[in-house]
Amino acid sequence: MAVAEKRMILKHADEPGYSPDITCYMKHGGYQMLKKALGMKPEEIVNEVADSGVRGRGGAGFPMGMKMRFLDRKSGKPIYLVCNADESEPGTFKDRQIIHKDPHQLIEGLMITAYAIQAAQAFIYIRGEMYEGARMLETAIEEARAKGFAGANIGGSNYSCEIVVHRGAGAYICGEETGLLESLEGKRPYPRIKPPFFPAVLGLYQCPTLVNNVETICNVKHIVEMGGKEYAKIGRPNNTGTRIWSVSGHVNKPGYYEFECGALTYGELIYEVCGGIRGGRKLKAVIPGGSSSKILRAGERFKGKNKDGSEFDWGIEDIPLDFDGPMAAGSMSGSGAVIVMDESTDMVEAMANINAFYAHESCGQCTPCREGSLWLRKITGRMCAGGARIEDADLLKSVADQMAGRTICAFGEAASWPVQSFIAKFKDEFVAKAQQAGNASGAAKGSGFRLIG
Amino acid sequence: MSEQSNKPQEVTINIDGKDYQVPAGMNLIDAVKQASGKEIPHYCYHPKLSVVGNCRMCMVEMGTPMVDRGTGQPMLDEKGAPKIGWMPKPAIACASKATEGLHVRTDSPMVQECRKGTLEFLLINHPLDCPICDQAGECRLQEFATDYGRGYSRFVEHKNVKPKRTQIGPRVMLDDERCILCSRCIRFSREIAKDDVLGFVNRGSYSTLTTYPGRQLENNYSLNTVDLCPVGALTDTDFRFKMRVWFLKPVSSICTESSVGVNTQVWSREGKIYRITPRENNAVNDSWMPDSGRRLYKQVESENRLLSCKIGGAEANFGDAIAKAASLLGSEKLAIVGSAHSSVEEQFTLALLAKARGAPVYVPAHLGEGDGMLISADRCPNTRGALVTGLISALPKPKLSELESAISSGKIDALLVVREDITQAGIDAAKLAGIRIIYIGTHSNATSQAAQVVIPAPTVFERAGTFINQNFRIQKFNACVPAPAGMRAELKVISEIAQAMGVEGLDGLTVPQVWKQMTTEVQELTGLSFESIPDDGRQLQAGRFASIRFPEGPSLRYNPESTSTATA
Amino acid sequence: MSLELKPETLKKIDSIIPKYPVMRSAVLPLLHIIQEEKGYICKSAIEWVADKLGLQPINVFEVVTFYPMFRQEPIGKVHIKVCRTLSCALGGSYQTRDILMEKLACAENGTSPDGQFTVEFVECLANCGKGPVVQVDEAMHEGITPDKAAAFAESLKKQTAKS
């Protein structure tokens, strides 16, 4: 029996008859928690969030309560709240569900968070390709304003906060928090150097700013509802609450699923919840947390010591589905996007696809990422077009090693970790490509990559 | 003036195992250079521009003394020395400031690997242009690749193609393939020149520097971007393909465009000047200079240069010219027109001659509009020299009306004119025909053409001396190229004329000799000598002239409001 | 900078700018609005936006060329975006795109000679569970595998013939 979902955020999203308008939302208890929050002191809400242990669900997994406490409240400058709805990590499609199916949950979470940090204004940065999502958010905000849940004098209190929906225009780097702030300021989205530009101190317009993911902000409402300590009982220590996992690739039932942290393993997710590999094929590889995370090879063993001293010896199937599980296996949970690949996948072509993504999305500000990402793409592109050499595998690793840790923002790691892990775990395929060199890999006319199973 | 100590607070930092004292909060690249002399290689960092940290060349290993979280006490290692917590990832030095206890490794294996990696990345799309690139010889990509690079290339793909040799402004050429996207030029244009005209378009490795289509990089500070550019992406169109820099000899000089006294470097080979670049002086011009000042060297070889002595329009030798001049200047109705383009030494000497002959001195002013940056309203480099040396006692005016009426009324019938065209100062050219004129100067003009005797003089590039700028700072300039054959220094000319006229005490004058006299007779110059003036100049006390309302407004490093009379 | 904009467009622009504490932030929304009306961003639009927000044209030009969603040339009437990133590629999006380009007669630059269709190969559209996904103007179409691509192309042709 497959482990059951625990739908907290997505509780109503797919219910028959549930609509995204405010009437339906309020019928299901919507905005009650905002009212409750307005009766609390802002620091009390921050304490609840800290007690809950909720971690960011956008990719970095940083504790939200700590982030809220870092905000510089002494500078006299206005504090800003930014919701990162620029869902662009390949494999991720969870925020889309919240925005399109239950936008008011985000609005309510946003207003509670804004009140907790006494934000002067809130922004939702949504990716430009989500036309309908942006419209739905605008409508929801208008509905909320009409009922006094957003805008001036929220809930009759003397706290006011306007929400601005700001659309991006097709850049993955706008999902990086300081890149987002630069884009929001109307400039090229070049991430800022840290130090000194930590958003908690020098964020939007050089004012203290809190940037959080859509799903993370939605959790705030539930934390206010049940209290931080109760929330912390869901999941396990350091991995509290539920998470929405986006599963795609060669499974029978790809889709989004919300589980209590650690309630199941990757194996149970792939084989029971998602119905196993399609066509009855064998698993070859899993990307556990969005394309930036390190890839796991089927058959690999992950060994180590838990925090309590006990030892673990896992295959992919045994890794707990939460924050720390994939990290213990040498990867990360990132944005919660699981990409499953079966034995028909040509790993060099998969690598080429990922490298092309990062080369296209690199902002170009700093040397290692700008030049390195394109170099990686050119190498794997050449390999797929029949020009692979034996030394290319080592060259790829060397180039990636020169990028990781040397860049202004985490994009350097995001572009290099896949290469490092692909070479570490699938070097044989890269070397084999060289031995096949001279025959183009059966590429269809114009496409360059097969990538079909 | 406050009574507190001017000494900034100092901290101890450790560079490669040795402790040094540096000002607290100083930029780490500058601190390491100042304290230990070591250069941390960098491209995008510049002390006068905002920090962006995008080239990643200046990465070093950093650590701070570890502190026990429980007791707050410093942690010690087995030897009892403070334990240093080294950061696992390299950090950029340009974004770091000197703090107490900071430890830096500038040459560890990690740092060497970082530099190799960064250089490799910079070179993979860089065109093989060295043989045709003007920057060769002063190119930081060449230098750092030699010093820190891997030494061989592993790149076998196709390089990016970008626009080459685009003229983005009247004086600047851009080659986008060479650009390493450090953004120094963009930051300079935005922050210093205040002309936001450059930017990056496209994305990733296809990012390209450009101006907005239809706009040009044409402000009067555009060539500073060429100086700033670490590679040959931005080059000077005037200097393009003219000379390899390793053949050029740099000599320090001062720009004569205005009283700002921009410090310059004049580059020449075998007596020919090829370009002028700014010289760093944080009290005057930072690291910048106006484009218009850079072209002043063209005067050395201009068509109307005076090259030989003339008597009555016919060529003559020096001795005859001096004799003739002396005789013509024997009149009792002699006047002298001096120049604020002459050096302090020359003005002092001329003043002595004037006093000896009892002749009145007139100096015309050349005024223009100051640009608030490095061109002031006074377009002469040494007006204050004329005041300090006593050549004149009041602020010069553009029109020499007193002289004009003196000539008209016949009170003056002989003029010794130095470096000035008095027809530009309100004297009608027709009036010149009625008086005897001796002209000493560099270029032919209406006055020199009306003169009975013309004696050529060297330009600022062909002689040494000092100027006093708008802030009463005395600065040295040196001879960069030899004067044309047969030409004597102005000091020599004056002293010969004086001798021939029977004036005592002005014979055989050289710059050091003049100084011996000036240092005892000129109040502001007491205790100085030509050799003792530092290369970046010396601030003088200007108290004597506090009541004069000079025409200059604020410049980059000069504010007429503040009483900046502190000695250096 | 002469730029003719509809009154509704100007109204929308004037209502958006005050929402931001700093005017420059309005660059992106203004470019979106103008592109919605005109179909692309021309030089006059760049200068108009710069002037409106107190910026230099280069500041706006830098932004326009950075983001793939802004185009400086007009495209076909129907804008078809096929996702090329890993999950959709694993489902065959490369073949889907090739088939669409062939059936809709789009040349290498992506636009058909009659100006009807533009097929663009874009990065992850955040709908990976239903891939390969194709976005046609603002509508998201899911599961367009290679075997369904030809039929999809036909339906697009029929749709645009009707309108």
List the helices and strands and how they pair.
The complex is a heterotrimer of chains A (453), B (568) and C (163).
Chain A: H1 22-27, H2 32-38, H3 42-52, H4 64-70, E1 80-85, H5 95-101, H6 103-117, E2 121-126, H7 131-146, E3 162-167, H8 177-184, E4 209-213, H9 214-226, H10 228-233, E5 235-236, E6 239-240, E7 242-249, E8 255-260, H11 266-273, E9 283-287, E10 296-297, E11 302-305, E12 311-314, H12 324-328, E13 337-342, H13 347-361, H14 367-387, H15 392-403, H16 411-435
Parallel strand pairs in A: 1-2, 1-4, 2-3, 7-13
Antiparallel strand pairs in A: 5-6, 7-8, 9-10, 9-13, 11-12
Helix pairs in contact in A: 2-6, 2-9, 3-4, 3-6, 5-6, 6-9, 13-14, 13-16, 14-15, 14-16, 15-16
Chain B: E1 10-15, E2 18-23, H1 28-36, E3 59-65, E4 84-86, E5 91-92, E6 103-105, H2 109-124, H3 140-148, E7 166-167, E8 172-174, H4 184-192, E9 198-201, E10 208-211, H5 223-228, E11 234-236, E12 249-254, E13 263-269, E14 272-278, H6 291-294, E15 310-311, E16 314-315, H7 318-328, E17 334-337, H8 344-357, E18 361-362, H9 383-388, H10 401-408, E19 414-418, H11 429-432, E20 436-441, H12 446-450, E21 453-456, E22 465-468, E23 473-477, H13 490-500, H14 511-521, E24 538-539
Parallel strand pairs in B: 1-6, 17-18, 17-19, 19-20, 20-21
Antiparallel strand pairs in B: 1-2, 3-4, 3-5, 3-6, 7-8, 8-11, 9-10, 12-13, 13-14, 15-16, 15-21, 22-23, 23-24
Chain C: H1 7-16, H2 27-38, H3 43-52, H4 57-66, E1 78-83, H5 86-90, H6 93-103, E2 117-122, E3 134-136, E4 139-141, H7 146-162
Parallel strand pairs in C: 1-2
Antiparallel strand pairs in C: 1-3, 3-4
Helix pairs in contact in C: 1-2, 2-3, 3-4, 6-7
Structure description:
The complex is a heterotrimer of chains A (453), B (568) and C (163). Chain A has 3 domains: 22-233, 3-Layer(aba) Sandwich (Rossmann fold), CATH 3.40.50.11540; 236-342, Ubiquitin-like (UB roll) (Roll), CATH 3.10.20; 347-435, de novo design (two linked rop proteins). Chain A has 16 helices and 13 strands. Chain A has helices spanning 22-27, 32-38, 42-52, 64-70, 95-101, 103-117, 131-146, 177-184, 214-226, 228-233, 266-273, 324-328, 347-361, 367-387, 392-403, 411-435; strands at 80-85, 121-126, 162-167, 209-213, 235-236, 239-240, 242-249, 255-260, 283-287, 296-297, 302-305, 311-314, 337-342. Chain A has a 5-stranded mixed β-sheet with strand order 8-7-13-9-10, with helices on one face. A 4-stranded parallel β-sheet of chain A has the order 3-2-1-4, sandwiched between helices. Chain B folds into 3 domains: 10-107, Ubiquitin-like (UB roll) (Roll), CATH 3.10.20; 130-241, Alpha-Beta Plaits (2-Layer Sandwich); 310-545, 3-Layer(aba) Sandwich (Rossmann fold). In chain B, a hairpin with a 2-residue loop joins strand 15 and strand 16 (314-315). Chain B starts with 9 loop residues before the first strand and ends in a 29-residue tail after the last strand. Chain C contains 7 helices and 4 strands. Chain C has helices at residues 7-16, 27-38, 43-52, 57-66, 86-90, 93-103, 146-162; strands at 78-83, 117-122, 134-136, 139-141. Chain C has a 4-stranded mixed β-sheet, covered by helices on one side. Chain C is elongated. Chains in contact: A-B, A-C, B-C. At the B-C interface, strand 9 of B face helix 4 of C.
